[in-house]
Amino acid sequence: GRYCDLPEEFPHVQSFHTYRINQPSAWFYTTKVLRHLCDIWEKHGSGLTNMHGSTGDIVFLGSSTEALEPCFAELSSKKDDMPSFDLGGSGSNMRTPSCCVGPARCEWACYDTLDACYNITQTFQDELHRPFFPYKYKFKFAGCPNDCVASIARSDCSVIGVWKDDIQINQQRVKEYEKNGTDINAEVCGLCPTKCMAWDGKKLDIDNSNCVKCMHCINLMPKALKPGKERGATILIGSKAPIVGGALLSSVFVPFLEMDPESDYQDLKELTEAIWDLWGEHGKARERTGEFIQRVGLSNFLEEIGLDPVPEMVMHPRTNPYIFFDDEIFEEAAE
């Protein structure tokens, strides 16, 4: 809700409410649907729109209090040739999940982002519409490490597509890239962050055990390289933009998770519910998940949600040689 402090002086904007409308997965619209939305908004509101908000919602800017319910009723009513639209998340709840175009348009998608986004949206309807949490909680689904929805910087749960096996190489196409002017040693191998690639003029070798899935080589030579065949997603937790505290990037919690629609994404849902239970019980007001993890400590957080620590959760080996062990470690050893 938005209200003006001087309603007598500015009667036309004494209330200027905002709607967040739940967008279709990956923002696919027909022009007919867009015209339908614009007609509703011109009828009930100011006509100003934001396509789209940072969470992904369609944003309608500027409505009077009297028009709130009629506008929602018209948006949510289903017509023969037009879909109905629900409101998106707002406040201290699960915000509207969003995703990249995934397999609908992109050859690099490692899982079906559109299905996962829709499934999570439908599963957690209560959490989407009722303020259960200490603060907002965002899902973003990216089909590959290019992360076209910027999930690693803007969502509490980033689901980023990744592959588990080796990068697929077409050696003949690699030679064609070199023939057409690509300096493979300088532009591909030389810019690999872990230097796991080697080119001898005839064959491109990749040490896949050291590959960090940065997508640089695939982006540069898309006809020669593509993600492996064993595909899934990495689950990262805890990113946020700088509002109360500073900006955070997501951290790896599950290095690889199969994103099979037939499993109904149960593993992702169980992890999410475990995080919500702990954060909802002990989180402070306006404290995002990443800030909560920083406050209680990663080891305590993992122990409470029942997740085993793995090396991928650590950015680099510790620089402090002093380790304070819990007493229970010595008690278990004595037993």
From TrEMBL:
Entry coiled-coil feature ranges: none
Residue ranges of the TM segments: none
Keywords from the named record: 4Fe-4S, Iron, Iron-sulfur, Metal-binding
4Fe-4S ferredoxin-type domain segment(s): 202-230
InterPro entries for the chain: 4Fe4S_Fe-S-bd (IPR017896), DsrA (IPR011806), NiRdtase/SiRdtase_haem-b_fer (IPR005117), Nit/Sulf_reduc_fer-like_dom_sf (IPR036136), NO2/SO3_Rdtase_4Fe4S_dom (IPR006067), NO2/SO3_Rdtase_4Fe4S_prot (IPR045169), NO2/SO3_Rdtase_4Fe4S_sf (IPR045854)
Stored Gene3D superfamilies: 3.30.70.20, 3.30.70.2500, Sulfite Reductase Hemoprotein, domain 1
A molecular function GO annotation: dissimilatory sulfite reductase (NADH) activity
Any one annotated GO CC term: sulfite reductase complex (NADPH)
Entry's Gene Ontology BP terms: sulfate assimilation
Pfam family, one: NIR_SIR
Protein name in the entry: Dissimilatory sulfite reductase alpha subunit
Species for this entry: uncultured sulfate-reducing bacterium
